């Protein structure tokens, strides 16, 4: 291009810019040299309607700076009231985009309004993962207590569509291919490194609270676990499970100290005045085929505290409590076994008279099936292998320690049959019934071997003292009310 043409072109551009500046700022001057354009007033750079304006060519490799002033200023980008598409860092090349990433002071960054939708197409990351470098993550403290704060409300507008699930946030992990990894839609982890910890801590915390007068129906829960499937779900192994909530110990070393670990802990709050829960664990009607199942354990269920009722099954259940076999050492343990330490067992006294109380009735419905055997409890011991031990389906033992003076009756087992009101009896009613039976040949090898419906013998290791006597079978008068003689002391 000839020199005169270049001068003419520069002069034309200068005239165009002066005209543009003059429209918005009368009397302003524009200075144009080889590398800079400077205006003494408001500068507008525009093109024809519908035209494209490009700053930096396709091959540009240098830095393009917009709004680098060190003074207070406002920078507007596509702020007009019209529909716009704003592209920032698009294209196939790798982009490193920094938005307000200076350490101090605290920036205020707002993206989207109340009705906006924000889509993040890749990984959303805050801080750097490290278990050893303090400060690698976002620093939290009393001033900045959390990294993410999401607050929503209903704007005081009622909802009536029960198919709609409202939430402050939703996390959804979808698997289309086979998975051998652990999958968590939400993964919460709180980790402590060589410190002393007090007060609560949890990987995930859920809370449900009310303020003012609230009427609630159905269910409110701090944490809700559920599972569901719209097609056949196959559990291939006998120990495979689907569960609404699961808990296990993930420690690689044993705990130290006198505290205990728990799969589920129900406790009192330490804030304000604690109010007892109605139920520590509730399994509602028809919610489970087996209410509680305990597999192999040292102690199946341990009632270790002070309680009015240790265990109550107060409603219809297919199985109230099921210990499904296996090598459980003590499926049910009430108290500790000791003949020397007072208070090691459940303490009984005038106000707490027994450790186990079982009450059943027929609900005033007659039974006509003579093949049925009704009972408040059933104890059944089956031997499949040879036995040289003593076998008792029910073992009752009352024991008195050294120095005790005993009056009134005492027995390892008491059986009583009582009537109230007018009762008509046929066949047999008895306080204690002993019977034996076999469906195959029973061989008694020795001449002194016996099977017996009832047996009595003296198990004392020393002779009795005093003028009283021992008896294998004792028939006596009652000492309550006016005694009435039996018709037969012994009838065969």
Key attributes of the depicted protein:
two-stranded antiparallel sheet; 4% strand; 492 residues; two-stranded parallel ribbon; disordered N terminus; little secondary structure; single chain; 1 helix
Overview of the structural elements:
- This protein has 492 residues and is mostly loops.
- It contains one helix and six strands, in the order αββββββ.
- It has one helix at residues 3-24, and strands spanning 30-32, 37-39, 293-294, 299-302, 322-323, 330-333.
- It has a two-stranded antiparallel sheet. Strands 3-5 form a two-stranded parallel ribbon.
- Strand 1 (30-32) and strand 2 form a beta hairpin.
- The longest helix is centred in the N-terminal third of the chain and has 22 residues, at 3-24.
- The protein is elongated.
- Residues 1-15 and 17-25 have low confidence and may be disordered.
Look at the structure and give the mean pLDDT.
Answer: 85
Instruction: Flag low-confidence runs.
Output: 1-15, 17-25
Give me the secondary-structure category: little secondary structure
- Secondary-structure element pattern, one letter each: HEEEEEE
- Our measurement of the CA-to-CA distance between the termini, rounded to an integer number of angstroms, reads 140 Å
Strand order of the largest sheet: 1-2
**Number of helices in the DSSP assignment:** 1
The largest β sheet comes out as:
2 strands, antiparallel
Helical fraction equals under 10%
Radius of gyration (CA) equals 42 Å
Shape call: elongated
Counted beta strands: 6
Strand content: under 5%
